[in-house]
Specification:
It comes from Schleiferilactobacillus harbinensis DSM 16991. By secondary structure, this protein is an all-alpha fold. The chain is built from 15 helices and no strands. It has one domain (3-333).
């Protein structure tokens, strides 16, 4: 990690300690320690395992999307990518550092930059679509109850939904109305040019045009590779369902055995949606608030609710972040280049 990233990592740890102290200020500490000592540690361990496991599934998704007749990405290299992404998502605003870190990890494995960018873009499309599908199903199952009981947080959920819907709509417009989207970009961005120098504005427009062109080209390739895309979509749905189930096992660890797993998962989907609109790395502050608000229905005990929130935050945020630090220290094998050389040798012999 660079010095800047190390500083961000340290700041997030300090900020989290501050939130921990803030959350514990009104809690009876005797009750808190009693609840901590009476945890079912096996369920908690299982929650940690499935958190790591769903990132390992993402490694398989990377292989499915990458491996073809010219490139073979080993699982060792493929699984590094999601863990490193998790680390940089956790320490950058709006998770903006995740994709550049993924790109570097892919290039370290021997996959060329252009292909890496296209593959990561494809993975992003699939992930966004899977998140949207899960959220729509959640809205059908549990949003009405949330809107009735927590009107304030319901607006945050809707804002998260609109943000994701706008992202998906933009991607679909590029895929199916490419020329129209290019013209629309010129119109929408015109007022931005009023507040920038001509040189900077032209540079920005060139960058945006390039990104749209790259995305369009990749989306056309995506349409032609239906088998790989379907496999990736199914694996992504499985990955998300596993991730969304983590709070349920935390509830079991706390002794709350009567909760409906589908209701718990739907609440977690909403929390993830809310967290995505907070600019602070990891959605810090918004994540804790939304968990305490939505899961109060499942954990009526105040000390258990705070303990559950802290355990959930540790597993879904810090386990991934610290695992990413470990994976960052594990060197990549440039085995993707080996197959490229073999392909070149075959071509030369032919």
């Amino acid at each position: 990690m660079s010095r800047k990233n190390k500083l961000a990592f340290f700041i997030m740890l300090v900020l989290s300690m501050g939130i921990l102290v803030f959350e514990l200020r009104t809690i009876n500490m005797a009750h808190f320690w009693r609840d901590l000592l009476h945890l079912n540690w096996w369920w908690l361990l299982f929650a940690v395992i499935i958190m790591i496991g769903q990132l390992c599934i993402e490694g398989v998704i990377m292989q499915v999307l990458t491996n073809d007749e010219n490139t073979r990405l080993s699982y060792h290299n493929a699984v590094r990518v999601p863990f490193i992404e998790q680390l940089f998502n956790s320490i950058t605003p709006f998770s903006s550092g995740g994709q550049p870190a993924e790109l570097i990890a892919m290039m370290q494995s021997g996959v060329e930059a252009g292909k890496s960018s296209s593959l990561l873009l494809m993975k992003f499309i699939i992930y966004q679509l899977a998140v949207l599908v899960n959220f729509v199903l959640t809205m059908v199952v549990g949003f009405s109850a949330v809107a009735q009981q927590f009107s304030g947080i319901a607006w945050l959920i809707l804002l998260g939904f609109v943000t994701h819907l706008f992202t998906i709509a933009t991607l679909l417009m590029i895929m199916f109305w490419y020329r129209f989207t290019k013209r629309l970009l010129q119109i929408v961005m015109k007022p931005v040019g009023w507040f920038m120098s001509a040189a900077r504005f032209n540079e920005l427009m060139t960058t945006l045009d390039h990104k749209i062109d790259t995305f369009y080209e990749e989306s056309q390739r995506l349409k032609q590779e239906k088998k790989r895309v379907v496999k990736a979509v199914i694996l992504t749905m499985v990955q998300l369902l596993i991730y969304y189930s983590i709070p349920y096992f935390i509830l079991l660890a706390l002794g709350q055995t009567n909760a409906n797993p589908f209701s718990v998962m739907s609440m977690h989907v909403m929390i993830v949606m809310i967290t995505s609109i907070f600019p602070i790395p990891g959605g810090t502050g918004g994540a804790e608030y939304s968990f305490r608000t939505l899961f109060a229905a499942f954990i009526p005990n105040a000390s258990q609710l705070v303990l559950g929130m802290l355990l959930w935050r540790f597993i879904t945020y810090y386990v991934g972040m610290f695992s990413g630090v470990v994976m960052l220290a594990v060197p990549a094998h440039k085995d993707a280049q080996v197959d490229k050389r073999k392909t070149a040798e075959v071509d030369n012999n032919a």
